[in-house]
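Let us practice reading a record.
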Amino acid sequence: MLGAGWRRVAVVLAAVVGFAGAPLVGSPASAHPAGAAAVVDSRVTGATTANVDVIVQKDSASDHGPEAAIEHLGGTVTRDLSIVDGFAATIPTSATGELSSLDGIRAVTLDEKMQPTGLLGGSGGGNSQAALKSVAPQEMQADDMWRAGYTGQGVTVAVIDTGIANVPDLAGRIVPVKNDLNLLQAPQPCLNLSGEPDCTDNYGHGTFVAGLIAGNGASSNGAWKGIAPSANVLSVKVAGRDGSADVSNVLAAIQWVVSFKDRYGIKVVNLSLGTDSTQSYTVDPLNFAVEKAWDSGITVVVAASNRGPDAQTISKPGDDPLVITVGAVDDMGTPGLGDDELPDFSSHGPTAADGLAKPDVVAPGAHIVSLRAPGSDVDVQFPTYVDGAYRKGSGTSFSTGEVSGAVALLNQANPSWTPDRIKFALMATAHNVASTDAMAVGAGIVDVNSARTATAGLANQGVARSNGLGSLDLSRGSVLVTLNDPMGTLVNGTLTAQNLLWNPLVYTLGLWNPITWYTTDAAGSRWYGSRWYGSRWYGEVDGSRWYGSRWYGQATGSRWYGSRWYGSAWYGAWE
């Protein structure tokens, strides 16, 4: 669990980020006081070669003294690694004894250039290397739905994320959006609430998620398909290249989706994000918003988060009893369920504030292959690709995308079904997998084809709704932030979701008026004073900075899922 002293922005998109380098030290328990001696990996000082490749983490990203110090020792800086506030270097082994005394350096670790365990190639990881195409559609019985004629045709899934790249696997199915606040503007490939000037996915997360929902495998002869390969996706961009996002942006995004759902045929909304807030769902504004979407007929699918394996680590709004909250399993690269494992990162229930059983279901979320966003931050930081157009990742973000695809299939097959009936059917027909702990896997892994013909029933009967009267600041979680939204307005920290407007006409005419929002200078719309960084995030514990980038895996140590930090993720790991 996150401590009260942590300083971080509230919304994280369900991802744990990893790269092919050495395990980097750093966790809340190993905070590094300024001026303390650097922690030096014993494999560095014990190297037997003339030179040794290392990764250096700095106390301050803006301090270039460590680079100069390494060069003074005869080393060469080979690559900037701003993702961990550090750099890669090659240094003479004879100079490694001096590393611990260098100013401004937090840690020095061996750069092993290790090959991640993944679906294609890599060392370790057992059967996961065997997969030559996605096995999630088989594990979830989506391939049976395809054979029955259901591919998501005519269903729109709203993806509230970092944007969606216009790539061949989604060609013609990214829904253009009319800007009702600027009628002279031509339709755009997203609703842009990010503060960036266009709809480009500069971070890379949203495109990856969209591929798992609706990719048709056009760039791989059908090998890497999403669960609903004919569905449409509508991009609601709430974050830019640095991953900046806030609860206020997500609220505005959900509000827009509800207001314009009929115009665009939106039946599903994917939220691969969350906060560590422990405010009760019964009063929380973000919970109120997702419930508003649910009650309007939109099935809301939310990531459980990547803070497992501890209990009470479900993020908000995945803690809401109405929505479908999704955890992850590792399919081991095979279509059978018998060898599936429970990855440590997948969060466990019950919910912290209200003690509710979560997650509801699970889906494959480890070493998953999906679409790249060419030129995005993730694409540049982790340039390891699969079949050119794809990459690998792990996290509950990606399980969530798959379940959103499954919901799209059910909407096509049974267009009259309500969100409550869809949730009931998915949970009633799920299969136990990887664990018998319902707080880890919920009802089990989704079997969408069985759900299609499930006995009628409704979830969420008698469940109390949120009144939305709680604090927006508390909804953000462990840090209170004052961020300017993209429209140049400052969100009042005590704003409640009940102040939001939920129909197209009122949204268009009144969303940004002073009655609802406190107006400020539009020049602050990029949130420079308090933004957080999706790939270069750091936190503070008791005033000491730390860089959460430690590697972790299963208890056996045989598998890993990326480098873990809570503030910069969108609940997925890049490989």
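A brief commentary: The two ends are 25 Å apart (CA to CA).
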